[in-house]
Specification:
There is one protein chain. The chain is built from 16 helices and 13 strands. It is of the alpha/beta class and about 425 residues long. Among the domains are: about 150 residues, Rossmann fold, CATH 3.40.50; about 40 residues, no CATH class; about 60 residues, no CATH class. The strands form 2 sheets. It has an 8-stranded mixed β-sheet with strand order 7-6-8-9-10-11-13-12, sandwiched between helices. A 5-stranded parallel β-sheet has the order 2-3-4-1-5, with helices on both faces. Helix 15 links the parallel strand 10 and strand 11. Helix 7 crosses helix 13 and helix 13 runs antiparallel to helix 14. The longest helix is centred in the middle third of the chain and has 19 residues.
């Protein structure tokens, strides 16, 4: 590719992309660390690059010292490995004598052989940040591909705090509020639960149609095409059944039997493979039973969608399921998937976080019905026989209270307030 043409593109891209407005994402990033940003599509992985660049500029780094390349640009569709080195030469030229440019490569997977180039940059002590499509770059592949030279960071849809900020709501809603403020934040919270939190969604009116386009892109591009799946019906049915079972453990054997009864007789190993493809694309994630033996931990998890809006596309009357799904997403955002469980051993607890010794029940209306209230509180009493010091929390749609149940302190919090904590 012509060197002057490449230089023109790189200059154009700085003007086109780096002026994009956006809110500060709540990720703590270290200096002098190479990052690879992964996650479900449309969560703002590219914006994490912009955020890093802006921080460098604020610290006094000239834009000339920054090499930013977006490989989704149609002018770069025929980029080859040799062109990557030419881009580096252009970056060195623009940075000036004896200066190494900071390198940001967006959607780098579009170039064959990118892995060796990026590893070489890291070995040469350049500071490098990259993103890539889920269909080409998955976190478990990156670990071996990049040889430990990059820190992999999963980017989630907006937290509720980020969502409010994106809508221009800068009030401190965690403190005492007026009636109008409460009504305002609750209305936004209901929208957040129903339609999810993809960043671009805050600016779109027809949210369901937008969610549908994201879902189809993930489904077709990151799952079907990537894995050469020919049994489209079986995969659709698996996702439908997972969505309907969000609040319950779902074993591979049970899912295989469900498919068989629905007229799609595929083997258990195929079901396992399909679920793996879906989780690789970050559409689903799983949490395990803290009280189970190792084999059961692996084979009978609970599955949740990475965004409540996507869950809503596949279910009807899904308010309660979306509420629990939202708690699952927020917990793995805060503590990591490996630190969040459910608990089932003669008692069912929706979530348990061992590091915090925190047990959580999710109930849409926890206090309105006496039977419901008794059931949730009794579950905590049974849990205390296994984990005596467990902190007990009920998350509801709108209720708030402090309860004492046979000497056990139980907090009841509205979901929106917990999300802002």
């Amino acid at each position: 590719m012509n060197r002057d043409f490449l230089k023109e593109i790189l200059i154009d891209q700085k003007e086109m992309y780096l002026s994009n407005p956006g809110i500060l994402r709540a990720y703590e990033l270290e200096e002098n660390v190479n990052y690879c940003f992964v996650g479900i599509r449309r969560t703002g992985k590219s914006y994490m690059l912009y955020q890093q660049i802006k921080k460098l500029q604020e610290s006094g780094v000239s834009l000339n010292e920054i090499l930013y390349v977006n490989f989704e640009d149609e002018r770069l569709l025929e980029t080859e490995t040799a062109d990557l080195n030419t881009m580096l030469e252009i970056g060195l030229e623009m940075a000036g004598k004896d200066k190494k440019p900071y390198i940001f490569l967006d959607e780098i997977h579009n170039v064959a052989g990118w892995e060796k180039f990026v590893r070489r940059l890291a070995d040469m002590k350049y500071r490098v940040n990259i993103t890539g499509s889920n269909s080409k770059m998955l976190s478990r592949e990156i670990a071996s591909t990049l040889g430990g030279r990059f820190m992999v960071v999963q980017i989630f849809p907006y937290s509720f705090t980020e969502y409010l900020r994106a809508l221009g709501k800068e009030n401190d809603y965690t403190r005492a509020m007026s009636t109008s403020d409460k009504a305002d934040v609750f209305k936004i919270y209901e929208q957040y639960v129903k339609y999810g939190a993809f960043p671009e969604l805050t600016e779109i009116r027809n949210k369901r149609e937008y969610l549908g386009s994201i879902y189809q892109t993930i489904y077709v591009g990151d799952i079907l095409t990537r894995n050469n799946i020919t049994n489209d019906f079986a995969l659709r049915l698996i996702l439908k059944k997972v969505a309907e079972s969000v609040m319950n453990a779902l074993s591979f054997s049970r899912l295989t039997n469900i498919l068989k009864s629905a007229g799609s007789a595929i083997g258990k190993q195929t079901v396992i493979n399909y679920i793996g493809y879906v989780t690789d694309a970050y559409l689903l994630f799983a949490i395990q039973n803290y009280a189970a033996k190792l084999v059961e931990k692996e084979t009978a998890p609970k599955y949740y969608f990475m965004d409540t809006g996507l869950l809503g596309l596949l279910t009807i009357n899904s308010e309660t399921a979306q509420l629990e799904n939202l708690v699952a997403v927020e917990l793995i955002r805060r503590y990591g998937t490996e630190n969040v469980y459910y608990f089932e051993s003669n008692v069912e607890i929706d979530f348990y976080v061992p590091k915090q010794n925190l047990a959580i029940q999710v109930c849409y209306n926890a206090l309105d019905n006496l039977d419901t209230k008794e059931r949730e509180l009794n579950a905590f009493a049974k849990l205390r026989k296994f984990i005596p010091e467990a902190q007990c929390l009920i998350l509801s749609n709108s209720e708030e209270a402090e309860l004492d149940y046979n000497g056990i302190s139980v907090s009841v919090l509205p979901m929106w307030k917990w999300l802002l904590a």
